[in-house]
Amino acid sequence: MAAAEVADTQLMLGVGLIEKDTNGEVLWVWCYPSTTATLRNLLLRKCCLTDENKLLHPFVFGQYRRTWFYITTIEVPDSSILKKVTHFSIVLTAKDFNPEKYAAFTRILCRMYLKHGSPVKMMESYIAVLTKGICQSEENGSFLSKDFDARKAYLAGSIKDIVSQFGMETVILHTALMLKKRIVVYHPKIEAVQEFTRTLPALVWHRQDWTILHSYVHLNADELEALQMCTGYVAGFVDLEVSNRPDLYDVFVNLAESEITIAPLAKEAMAMGKLHKEMGQLIVQSAEDPEKSESQVIQDIALKTREIFTNLAPFSEVSADGEKRVLNLEALKQKRFPPATENFLRHLAAAEQMLKI
């Protein structure tokens, strides 16, 4: 087996089953291998079966302390052999961000459970994918891990959609991401939150870092504590109460109202100048060009972002211990950039850990 395939198959951490019975009770029924009580409670909270509003969310995903979770939920048809179950959720936990891959695999597992009414077949398929990266079955469909490239998952969102909603204000999001700030996104519909938040890391493509994404967070003490341990993040919420938690964000995006707010404490670092205006114009121009694909828009933004780092290069020098490049603040000041540009470059150097401590 190719090394790449071996690496890919080591990404899954576990599989679980949650059921809602005819009495309306929601139970954690089975998992392989074992899981912790904390993670089990989190997944019960994320699966829509425990929700008061009874809305069915076919697929949700998110991250908790570097573990990704993917949950597919279905309603059990009357014809099924699962007579005492009205709905069930299949949960997969993994080390990687790849919603399309795990949505495809959980759908296959759902079909298996509907047909056989026992987790045995699911476990066999899970182990097959874990060890070989493939599971084949004529009636339930086949799944091949290597069909789902991580890069594809990174490119699956739409920056064009974000720009059509926020226009020039998209540069606020770009700036916040560049400076590794905390972005909180609110919308009452989880699907809208997930679609929007998963796209944001693509605005700083040079980092290719989706670990900053927490696409489905509840206002739960344990989850918030885990979130606040991260330097910068993109966090999605469906509870408007989050807007009253300024300790959680530097930038607040109300998707439902198409509003972006910069928190008072972040205003100094996020002050906009000529550099930001140019960046904003480039983002809008590129995204509004019907000839350009999503990946070309990302490429345009990445090239312009690289120019910003090129601006920093002349003012950086190798640190005394020779470990990394640090910013020479004196040299930056002597260049007499406009105040907003100098301020941004200084904060960017701090975000990139280029400041002398």
TrEMBL record:
Coiled coil location: none
Signal peptide interval: none
Highest taxon above the source species: Eukaryota
Keywords, alphabetical: Endosome, Guanine-nucleotide releasing factor
Cellular compartments annotated: Late endosome
Main location: other
GO MF term set: guanyl-nucleotide exchange factor activity; small GTPase binding
Domain UDENN: 1-357
Any one Gene Ontology cellular component term annotated for this protein: late endosome
Listed GO biological process terms: endosome transport via multivesicular body sorting pathway; protein transport; regulation of early endosome to late endosome transport
Xref: InterPro entries: FAM45, Tripartite_DENN
Similarity section: Belongs to the DENND10 family.
Protein's name in the database: DENN domain containing 10
Name of the gene this protein is made from: DENND10
